[in-house]
Each structure stands twice: as structure tokens, then as C-alpha cells.
Amino acid sequence: MESQQALKEDKIGRLLLKYSVPAILAMMVTSLYNTVDRAFIGSIKDVGALAISGLGVTMPLFTILGAFCVGIAIGGSTNISIKLGEGNKEEAERILGNTFALEIVVAIAIMIIGAFFLDDILYIFGASIDTIKYARDYMSVIFFGTWFNLPGFALNSAIRAEGRPKLAATMMIISCILNLILDPIFIFGFDMGIKGAAIGTIMCQLLVFIWSTYYFTLGKSNLKLKIKNIRLEKRLLKAIILIALTPFFMELASGSIHLVTNRVLKIYGGDLAIGAMTTITSIYLIFLMPVFGLSQGMQTIIAYNYGAKQYGRTKKALLIAMLVGTIILTFGFIFIRLFPELFISIFTNDSKLTELAMNGVNIYTFTLPTIGISILGAVYFQSIGSAKISMFLSLLRQVIILIPVILVVPRIYGLNGVWASQPIADVSTMIIVGIFLLREFKKVNKF
């Protein structure tokens, strides 16, 4: 109860430190894992360039899987935070149980689809005869782990929502460190290649699931995961899904743009261009992950205070988060500009792949400092329950603006047009998000 009272009374800057730093650390460790994971895959003898291209093919499918995982988790945790802000613990526990049940149902459906249609899906997403083996080896294992990955992620998100951000982050950090240890063992020690990377991933997801389940059943949690609440109630599912739609479509949009991008890249640069984009987005995420962590911390603060009708505090949390996010991304922009070859060399030593990535990374990351405003602005509307606005703003950057741009601009500028499409979408989205935020603050008299 002390942590929940602090959400209502402590200084916003202090709360952002308390809730965001653990989440940022968890995201940074996750980013480190992704970096090392792809570096290991890219260094597999004789097949590294094709293997990382095969991994690039899986990205649309991976992000679609993440859409269900993250969307439902955020829908549940945001509702939990709001109910705790209202002082309704019993309702929060019912939401926890329904979120857990929904993730399991969705996970089973995904496993069944993956078992029967994986190759067909991968070919649609840009796989070729040369890359299908690597894409299949990776995703078949990832699909198998969905039954514990999805509910485990939801429970971890709920831990943060009930006021234990350090514990939630600790679980993620430890699982990622374990992944860093397991990857080389399975990839090289057991000579399992890209499948070994996937096995290491799902083993760590299983750890998070077991640990989070223990916390909410036998551990010292405020909320309890009770068997009577693990069911699907229409009223609660509607509340969860309403908020889940925004992060779901954000992730789904990411998967869609990966699909479109892979197909365009294949036209203008072939399999290696897909590998170059995988390398570039891996570098991109190193600096974007802290902003996602910041959004998680900000979301808990905003959702709780919105439920408690402390509207001025919600605005302040957003503005401070935007300032910090912009600073982080500006440093990222500077580092990438100064040391592009160093970053690329982490993922590949193939000369042709390096040449493609060098050209692409300088164009693709040109507007990196502006992205925090777009991401955090959309999350603000999501946190206060304005699902339609949040969904629209989230889809702007990755679908509404980006897809038309990436289909048109490369026709004029070729491969450089593919790299330039994201910066064009980033600037446009930042302006529109800013307009929506100004209108929202004026409407509720927050100035």
C-alpha cells in the first residue's frame, strides 16, 4: 500500500526514477541480449550472413507474436493500475486472473497455427529457398514456448502495475543474463546453430513464467492470482482488450511494416538487404529500448493518477518523460554518427553486408531524436484509457504514413528510398502527436 500511496503523493521526477530506471535497465539488458544474440547468429561459420537474413525474415512474425504478448499484458496491467488507484483491490485481482487466462488461450491458438502453417507464413514474409531453413529453425522453437511466454510476460507486467517495478525488472534482467550464457552453449557448444539461440530464449521465458506465477500465488504480492479468477469474463475482457488494442496494433503495425519492408528490400537489394535492415534495426533498438522502459514507468504513474483524478500529475509525468527520452535518443544519434562501422561490426564481418548497412544506418537513424515524442505521446493516451486516439497515433508512424511512403519513395530513389522512408514517417508523426497532446491538455484545463 505504501508504494501505491507514493504514486499519488511523491514527486513525479522521483517516481519516474523509481519506476522507469528498473524498466530501462531491463530493456537495456534485453537490448544487450538481442545484440549479442544476433551477433552470435551472424558469426556462425560459413552461413552467418544468410542466418541473420533468415532471422530478418522472422521479424514480422516475431512482432505479430509480440503484439498479442505485449498488448494483452498492457491492457491488463493498465486496468490493474487504474483499479488500484480507485482503491478497488478485488476488481484488480479479477482483472489479473482474466489477463492470465486470455494470454493462455491466445498462446494455444498461436501454437496450433504455427504447427500447420509456419513455412507458408515465412515465405509470405520474404523467405527464400536460401533463408527458409534458418527462419523455420528459429520460429518453430519460439512458437513452442508461447504457452508460457505470453502469460509470464503478463504477470511480469502486473508486478510493475501493483507497485514492484524493481522486482519486475530483476526478473527480466536475470532471464536475459541467463540467455547470454545459454546462447553460445546451444549455438556453438551443442552445434545447434540458430535453433540453439531460440532454445536459449524460450528457456529464459520459462524462468520468468515460473517466477512470476510463484510471486502471485505463494509470494509476498499484494494481489493474488486465484483459480476462481482465471477465467474469461466478458465485462473484464472488454476493458482489457479496449486498452490492449493500442499496443497490439502498435506491435502489429511493426510486423506489417517488416513484411512490406522485407518485400521491398528483396526487390531493390535481395536477401542481403534484408540482413542489412536486421543489422540496422538492431542498432536502432539499442537506443530505443530505454525509451520503451521509460514509457513503462510513465504508464504506471499516469494510469494510477488518472484513476485518482490527479490530472496535473499525469501531464507532468509525460513532459518529464519526453524530455528524458529525447536526451537519450540524441546521445544515440551522436554515437551512431560517430561510430557506425563499430556498431555494424558487432553483427557481421561480411563485406557486402557491411557496405549495405553502412549506407543504410546513416539515413535510417537520421530522425532518431524525435521518436520519443511520438512513442510517449501515444502511450499517454493509452494510459488514460483513450484507446481510439492512442491507436490512431500509434498506427501513424508504422502504418498510415510509413507504408505509403515505403511503397512510393523507393521507386524514385531505389534502396536509399527504403532507408529514408522511416525518417519521413518519424517527423510527420511527431508533429501530429504534438497537436493531439496540445488539444488534450487544453480540453481538460491542464495548463
TrEMBL record:
Question: One GO CC annotation, please?
Answer: plasma membrane
Keyword Transmembrane in annotation: yes
Localization recorded for this chain is: Cell membrane
Q: Which UniProt keywords apply?
A: Antibiotic resistance, Cell membrane, Membrane, Transmembrane, Transmembrane helix, Transport
> What Gene Ontology molecular-function terms does this entry list?
antiporter activity; xenobiotic transmembrane transporter activity
Tell me one GO biological process term.
response to antibiotic
| Membrane topology, as annotated | Multi-pass membrane protein
Q: Does the keyword Transmembrane apply?
A: yes
Q: What is its main location?
A: membrane
**Where would you find the membrane-spanning parts of this chain?**
16-36, 48-74, 95-118, 138-155, 167-190, 196-218, 239-260, 272-296, 317-340, 360-381, 393-413, 419-438
Q: Which Pfam families match?
A: MatE
Which domain of life, per UniProt?
Bacteria
What the record says about family reads: Belongs to the multi antimicrobial extrusion (MATE) (TC 2.A.66.1) family. MepA subfamily.
Q: Which PANTHER family match?
A: MULTIDRUG EXPORT PROTEIN MEPA, SPORULATION PROTEIN YKVU
Query: What name does this protein carry?
Result: Multidrug export protein MepA
